[in-house]
Amino acid sequence: MTTVQSPPAPPTAIRPQVVARTGLYAVLAANAAAVTVFFVQAGFASNALVVLGRLAGLYGALLMAFQLLLVARLPWLDRRIGMDRLTSWHRWLGFGLLWTLLGHVVFIVLGYAQSSSMDPLNELLDLAETVEGVLRAVVALGLIVVVGAASARWARRRMAYETWHFVHLYTYVAVVLAFTHQVAVGTTFTASSAATAYWWTLWGVALGAVFLGRLVLPLWCNLRHRLRVSAVVPESDNVVSVYITGRDLDRLPARAGQFFLWRFLTRDRWWQANPFSLSAAPDGRTLRLTAKAAGDGTAALRHLKPGTRVFAEGPYGAFTTLHRTRPDALLIAGGVGITPIRALLEELHGHAVLIYRVATDRDAVLHDELRELAHAKGAELYLVTGPAVPDRLAPRELARLVPDVADRDVYVCGPPGMTSAVLGSLRELGVPKPQIHFERFSLAG
């Protein structure tokens, strides 16, 4: 199998993740400054509460547009930051958006109630009935509250992914309603031609990014490559590998460590997309994913027929050699988190150490293949088995297996609990943060 080996970046080079993250911060700060300038130019209301409410609403609109950018799945951002981190930022920004918009409503209602001597509830009802766009804004806020509640950890754990995703789609309805409210009654929106042009451009870029990243690019990629299942190979009783072929796969910008959202176009699975990492480095001819049966969807992979058409979104993820900083590497995998690690081992050059953490030998997916690959590349392979307690990857154990761990890039992928424990061990061992690369298995497995 032929793979492209990418040398690590020079130690003095600015990391791609830093460039992308700094760029996002700069864009947000510049837009916040622009919003403030346009707000000041529009003039202030006589009521301080109304002033605070309008400013909160403008910042809420900015955060809403920025949220769309974070989940647009634009390749440049995703390959440098990673979907898991972008999604995490989107989540926390969403809570900021919720409180900002609540502040907008509370301050506006209290301000107008103070001027009219009405109680806040009746003032809100009066505004909804008499002012164009206010009712739409109230509905938008209600939808955002529902989505925010569904995103809370206690609710997310009790909700099927499909249900959570369906609820989240209402965010786009809220965006449209909020924008029409801003167009209808936003004093800053109509204060000057420059302000109007700014807000139209901001919303156009945000919605355009979503349209491009979530619809146009996936459709174009699948029309270009015409992906199909070429073979289904059982690896064990509950693990299966699916091989995918297509046209011009050498032009597909996929790298070892990345994942796709796979949709197998059968009668009972065409509507369901699942994230699976590539379990072999792309060679320009075939893509391979390896999955463990964890439900009806993954169990059905074993029954796919060769020739089945595939719709894939991606590649996604920043868990690649693009972010290397050192010539040697340590790869740590847990469970089926071995799939992107196995692909990375194939692509990496320099000396590599692979530690594979499983409960029993029988749980070691692709172990024979890993052993052959490690031998061919001159890498060290350690299979660590046993119960989670005591921790077999504690700092002392890691230092014993890999004495020079602080001088290596470290890639970690596995269940959330294992990943968090390993990251803690690496910090105790003094591994610099830029050398630690990890991906949450719950997202990309």
From TrEMBL:
* Primary location group: membrane
Q: Where is the FAD-binding FR-type domain?
A: 222-322
Q: Which cofactor does it need?
A: FAD
Membrane topology classification: Multi-pass membrane protein
Q: Where in the cell is it found?
A: Membrane
InterPro entries, A to Z: FAD-bd_FR_type, Fe3_Rdtase_TM_dom, FNR_nucleotide-bd, MRET, OxRdtase_FAD/NAD-bd, Riboflavin_synthase-like_b-brl
Keywords on record: 2Fe-2S, FAD, Flavoprotein, Iron, Iron-sulfur, Membrane, Metal-binding, Oxidoreductase, Transmembrane, Transmembrane helix
**Do you know which PROSITE patterns this protein is assigned to?**
FAD_FR
**Known Gene3D superfamilies for this protein?**
Nucleotide-binding domain of ferredoxin-NADP reductase (FNR) module, Translation factors
Question: Which chain regions cross the lipid bilayer?
Answer: 24-45, 51-71, 92-113, 133-155, 167-185, 197-217
Name this polypeptide is given:
Ferredoxin reductase family protein
Record the organism: Streptomyces yaanensis
Tell me the lineage of the source organism. Bacteria, Bacillati, Actinomycetota, Actinomycetes, Kitasatosporales
